[in-house]
Amino acid sequence: TGVTPKDPLPGVDLAQIASSGGKVNRTTLFGAIFDHDVAEIDRPEASLQFRWCRESNWKLIIPHGSSSPELYDVNQDPHETNNLAEQNDAVVSCLSKKIDFWGQVAR
Question: CA-CA distance, 94 to 53, in Å (whole number)?
């Protein structure tokens, strides 16, 4: 049993994707990482740590409250050890705009 939401939740049902062969018609994936415990239930941004985006070989991570994004070429650097943000301003700008369009949070 569980709670049935009043409105549909955003995003994609990964269980459906996995059961239908694992293919999805998306070129960009988005996510957010929160603290494991909610600081303020009515202000989820209080627990936000990172927002991220994955497109093609790029993964952009934006730490909440920080102006230092991290950009990785996950095909060449799957362990995300070489931050390429400073060398790729255009990619950071493009993916940052997509993240902001996907889900803006209070700062």
Answer: 11
- Strand (E) positions, the chain? 28-34, 48-55, 58-63, 70-73
Q: Cα dist. 80→9, 43, 76 in Å?
A: 30, 30, 9
Which residues lie closer than 8 Å to 68 by C-beta, 6 or more apart? 85
pTM above 0.70, yes or no: yes
Distance CA 42, CA 61 (A): 24
What six digits make up the tokens of 5? 């939401």
Cα–Cα distance measured from residue 68 to residue 61, given in angstroms and rounded to the nearest whole number: 9
Query: Over the stretch 75-93, which tens digit does the pLDDT of each residue have?
Result: 999 999 999 999 999 999 9
Distance CA 12, CA 26 (A): 10
Give bridge partners of residue 52 from the DSSP assignment: 31, 61
DSSP summary character for residue 9: P
Give me the amino acid identity at 23.
K
